[in-house]
Protein 1
Amino acid sequence: MHLPKTDKKRIVIIGGGFGGISLAKKLRGLDAQIVLVDKHNYHTFQPLLYQVSTSGLEPDSIAYPIRKVLKNLDNFHFRWATVKEIDPVKQEIHTDIGQLTYDYLVLATGTKTNFFGNTDIEKYAMPMKSVPQALNIRSLMLQNFEDADNCDDLEERKALLNFSIVGGGPTGVELAGAFAELKRNVFPKDYKHLNIDEMQIHLFEGSDRILPPMSEHASKKATRFLQELGVKIHLNTMVSTYDGERLTLKDNTTIRTKNFIWAAGVTGAIVEGFENSVLKDRLNRYKVNKYNQVEGYESIFAIGDIAYMQTDEFPDGHPQVAQPAIQQGELLAQNLKRSFKGETMRPFVYYDKGSLATIGRNKAVADIKKLRFGGFFAWFVWMFVHLMALVGFRNKVVVFFNWAYNYINYDKAARLIVRPFTPKT
Amino acid sequence: MHLPKTDKKRIVIIGGGFGGISLAKKLRGLDAQIVLVDKHNYHTFQPLLYQVSTSGLEPDSIAYPIRKVLKNLDNFHFRWATVKEIDPVKQEIHTDIGQLTYDYLVLATGTKTNFFGNTDIEKYAMPMKSVPQALNIRSLMLQNFEDADNCDDLEERKALLNFSIVGGGPTGVELAGAFAELKRNVFPKDYKHLNIDEMQIHLFEGSDRILPPMSEHASKKATRFLQELGVKIHLNTMVSTYDGERLTLKDNTTIRTKNFIWAAGVTGAIVEGFENSVLKDRLNRYKVNKYNQVEGYESIFAIGDIAYMQTDEFPDGHPQVAQPAIQQGELLAQNLKRSFKGETMRPFVYYDKGSLATIGRNKAVADIKKLRFGGFFAWFVWMFVHLMALVGFRNKVVVFFNWAYNYINYDKAARLIVRPFTPKT
């Protein structure tokens, strides 16, 4: 890899998600060469990805060029590359555009979709972890509506208009709600000659309630909101496979669907080159100490979703959401600065700001500290928090305008099939 | 093709460009079944496509779902399909999603890029006639900058940063100006470690002036504006070929470039099934009479860029721009309504509103009636006219906000490589 020669220490960050970006921003002022490597040239605001899938927002509203976020950082280099392997002995990183050495390495690679080893699901399901995947879901949805409008076979039409989402976590719940709003407010205007009741939305969850990481109160409220919108919720229901045409449940029931979205779980996006013992098995996260140092390595850190920090309060590690990643990134920046000055590092303490999930127009649920609430106020808080968290003034304005426009007009404007999606056969 | 059965006459429109949309909108109130077929599910505002290529705007700002534009039209059916062939004897249209019959057929297919038979150019050049093509140019540009930032070979870097545009018409001129603005205002901030002077922009034009359809005054002004921005203009220069790495001029000079954009000409996007005699050869347009009826057919019409209407004032047909298409579409709607009532149709008379082209910030040229002017005022008029011409309130606001933001911040925000472009080898 080509980088300007320097006497400074080199800090390499792999991943431009919430953790990597928060860290890099706060490294401003440190006398080091900073290299951030990501397979995308932009940071994705993942909590709003489902709105890209469902025609509510365009990608540029929720993604931000990494070079632009970090334009005030001196000695900063972005490299658009995929990391192949790490050699922790030689302190080397191998990528598809060459290799580079590091003095400090920060793993902030986050997670990827977990298909639990089911290759059929991996092949045919639509995951939603990246902007291109979100756009694929949008294209497929619109294509299937176009096909349905031109289809005189009732069963085929129902399959085209069946939306089955696996996973009742925030992603699945927010997606189901957004599809239901499209059904209620948008598609009847676009497809006047279709019977919109033929569109069915199913949400499958393996446990006994949706939004399992949130409170019972939030689960109940969200369930009611989704049911009011016509979403069919299947609890304690495991989907065993999908062949591109038909999903099969554990009890062998089958359902025909052309829109099968997999939001059932994630697994660490690990990088090759470490010995297995470093990893915690189940979620593929790197075991780290309270300074986010990867077990056994002094100059390798892991932050965010890919880090497994066992504490008394969080014996299974921190929740895999934005806040721990941001907070760990910010603390690590301070710790690196301390370490450069010969000072001792400070341990990580998670400050839980609470959880929010939105179901649709005026409908959201919130668990903040000991407060549990749902409805219009929670929805308002959800909007405000997400708007403020977006990177950049332009994105805030564009998202706000789109939300206001969509709210007033009962519309979702981004209904272009720019890159048609070809389902695999 | 599946369409509701009806006793009404069926009007089929092929193409949702300026002509097809203007026609369909004005058909409101006519007691007929109207079917519009297009290979995209959206209408593209082509005059601003170059801003999608150059990171100024996102596709959803300049494209509009066809179903949404025409939502107030009764008995209207959109079909997302590619037309394969027409059978004018059986009055049938064959598409990739089935066939349908028509009582009236309107060809509004516009033009496609003309490679003048050069298969190498067709294979390696970047055309810019559609939203996906515009996005490809954007991705390639950003990818080449990423590669250049990681490249220590000067010659290779210069090839990555060479932008060669063939065709000095409005598209080529506007693109060259936009690249020059990126060079001046945007890329130096993103790529601080690159020497931005290594980015070179070339504009090749076969005739002796750029903007040949406009006045001499406009050509001169535009030339000066482009030169001030550092664009190298090559007049009387024919590009004979490009092999993906190197372009060759007629005089055998070669230039290494990884960004080769072909805006040298268009040819009618004709539909198979007509006898050749109907067509005018050179530009592949259908010969029509003053009612836009295709020569030899009473119930087949052609409007816009695909129509060749010879008049005393326009012996070579009307200019292939938006205005004739819009005006012919609107007149044809009236004529069809007259015809349904047994009244006689009225002949087409073109009302020339003038021509505008923009080069960049505060820089545009205008020929309006007998007025020829350039500079800030022309640029202001250009912005106003284009903003007003955009379909939909939302698009107007979003484009206006983006322009204002970009103007104030000397920025172009849409710098995401969402779908990386893979150059052919």
Protein 2
Amino acid sequence: MDRTEPPEDPQSTPAPGSVRPGGRTARTRAAVLEATLAELVETGYADARIDRIAARAGVAATTVYRRWGSLENIVVDLADDLAVSIELPDSHTLEDNLRTVARAVLTLNEDPAHRAWLQVMVSAAVRSPKAREALSSVLAHRRDLTSVAVRHAVTRGEVPPGTDPHEVIRATVAPLYLRMYVTGEPVTPADADRAAAAAALAARAGLFVTRPPE
Amino acid sequence: MDRTEPPEDPQSTPAPGSVRPGGRTARTRAAVLEATLAELVETGYADARIDRIAARAGVAATTVYRRWGSLENIVVDLADDLAVSIELPDSHTLEDNLRTVARAVLTLNEDPAHRAWLQVMVSAAVRSPKAREALSSVLAHRRDLTSVAVRHAVTRGEVPPGTDPHEVIRATVAPLYLRMYVTGEPVTPADADRAAAAAALAARAGLFVTRPPE
């Protein structure tokens, strides 16, 4: 983050809880991320070009290259920007916390910008290893963040030691992604809750314990 | 199926168990399906054209239009052609049969032709409602066929009455599709078996019973 920024204009100060340092730098970032989404939706990932993104954002292409270095890096930053924060308290059961994770997938699916981003990436990942890597990295990062729910449950003894947190999160979100990005069926809060309940049940039964190969 | 065909050439008789009536008609179908896959892989679904498919197959475009009527119909027929037959005996437990279903998803993923077909369709479905409909229809048909495993289990009392067979199948295959088509992670037989075990456990616990909204 560039620390040589002029002081923030008080008029443009973001709401508490969403503060981000930087004024012009933050505005440049926002403009570039918005331009990237527009470029991706219009041309697809394979044909997206950083010089056109820079032109859409009204900044120099060199600024974009210096800050992000590659389209994949912008795409990952965009995904972080579109994500939602969720609370997964240790005082909640695993099923409650997995329900929060599953409902967050639905919330993101209802955000047109996030849905557009993910659709473009799923579509592109089939043909582009770089797109696959960017998408895979974003989703792995999100599993890292939500894994805390599983680690809490292991510590509390609600699920067996050795339970693989990523596998529990995958089981929770997979039926939702199947509907959203493969079969194209609608997803409802009931689907989210059912997926969370099934994943929690399987985790309690020890099905997601990672064992060394025999 | 055209029944005015000349008798089959014994040299080209397929192996027992894979017999399909028709000689020239069957060869035309095989050539068109093969040409469709090549066209889809090369140009994507959005740009695939029936006249080019006909030219690749060495048949008249009118023949293709008369027999299939639309690209979507050819794509659905291609998927049926690439599918594998599986046995889901009533004498097996639900978990055993779901493991067979999950392993079949892996088998299809190892077939380059089927993998190419499904990748093209997942990629196209994001932008094309017709592609989405064709893909959705193929997968719903496969769930219909594999639902017998769940219906057996309901009749035997292994899972509660009112268990939704499609939901059980979705839960079984979803973690595999997530890896194959969203995160791009490898899928292993252990992943298939774990998904089958988790879905069977949730089904036995009554999590897939469809209740009227309260």
